[in-house]
Specification:
- This protein is α/β, with parallel strands linked by helices and 143 residues long.
- The protein has a single domain (2-138), classed as Rossmann fold (3-Layer(aba) Sandwich), CATH 3.40.50.
- It is built from 6 helices and 5 strands; from the N terminus they run βααβαβαβαβα.
- It has a 5-stranded parallel beta sheet, with helices on both faces.
- Strand 4 (95-99), helix 5 and strand 5 form a beta-alpha-beta unit.
- Helix 3 runs parallel beside helix 4 (82-88).
- The longest helix has 15 residues, at 27-41.
- It is globular, with a radius of gyration of 14 Å.
- It starts with a strand and ends in a 5-residue tail after the last helix.
- It binds 1,3,4-trihydroxy-5-OXO-cyclohexanecarboxylic acid (DQA).
- 1,3,4-trihydroxy-5-OXO-cyclohexanecarboxylic acid binds at residues 10, 73, 75-76, 78, 99-101, 103, 110.
Length: 143
């Protein structure tokens, strides 16, 4: 199974963001952990991050033909990007939405995800481990 993991806007500066919310881990450390978990689980993954919504959407389009499953954390785009919603809709495989923080327990504007109705599974507030849960879920596991 080929899984594309897409992190969106501001996730490149993860290590500089509020550690009480995001845990202080850098994107590089996060991606290293994801590659280790994928190796352990026998899943083939590719991680990408962009602050450009157009680039992020282009990678989703490429995934229509190149990936079996998607794991997406669109960052703040989650809350207003109908363009990302519409790009995810035609993807034939499973899509897991991951957020490091529990967006449903934060500010009102963060509680709504415009992509929630086009994903097959959501993992909220589990920190970096949420990406592992997403991979386990895609393998048909319990998470
Ligand atoms: C986030 C939550 C979003 O509300 C925020 O804008 C982010 C990160 C998370 O992983 O918890 O950038 O997606």
């Amino acid at each position: 199974m080929q899984v594309l993991i897409l992190n969106g806007v501001n996730l490149d500066v993860l290590g500089r963001r509020d550690p009480s919310v995001y845990g202080g881990i850098s994107l590089n450390e996060l991606e290293t952990r994801i590659y280790e978990w994928a190796h352990e689980l026998g899943v083939s993954v590719r991680c990408r991050q962009s602050n450009s919504e157009g680039e992020f959407i282009g990678w989703i389009h490429d995934a229509y033909d190149d990936a079996d499953a998607l794991v997406v954390n669109p960052g703040a785009w989650t809350h207003y990007s109908y363009a990302i919603h519409d790009a995810l809709e035609p993807f034939a495989g499973p899509v897991v939405e991951v957020h490091l923080s529990n967006i449903e327990g934060r500010e009102d504007w963060r509680r709504h995800s415009v992509i929630a109705d086009v994903v097959s599974h959501r993992v909220l507030g589990k920190g970096p481990e949420g990406y592992r849960d997403a991979l386990v879920h895609l393998q048909g596991g319990a998470s």
